[in-house]
Amino acid sequence: xxxxxxxxxxxxxxxxxxxxxxxxxxxxxxxxxxxxxxxxxxxxxxxxxxxxxxxxxxxxxxxxxxxxxxxxxxxxxxxxxxxxxxxxxxxxxxxxxxxxxxxxxxxxxxxxxxxxxxx
Length: 119
Known about the structure:
Blueprint: H1 6-18, E1 20-21, H2 23-29, H3 37-49, E2 53-58, E3 61-66, H4 70-85, H5 90-101, H6 105-118
Antiparallel strand pairs: 1-3, 2-3
Helix pairs in contact: 2-3
């Protein structure tokens, strides 16, 4: 799966929250100024063509839902980030985020605990 564009990700975040929605429902969740109906409709069709979302037809209306879960996308995207920017080193990736965020000792302890629980 290829990385989604910023606009595609924005739409998917809304759809993941809503779980299923019509185009008008998606538009309602956008901040002002809201995008035009045709813009979102086109974006939905692109995501559908990419196999990211599916639909259920009700007469002339379509209700959309995510085929790819947020977790599946996150895993794929993060693997790509680690590969592209950290030479496939998760250790380097974590070190980068720890340094950038400026984590406290308590937060680092919590992170170590989370890692131990996963293993």
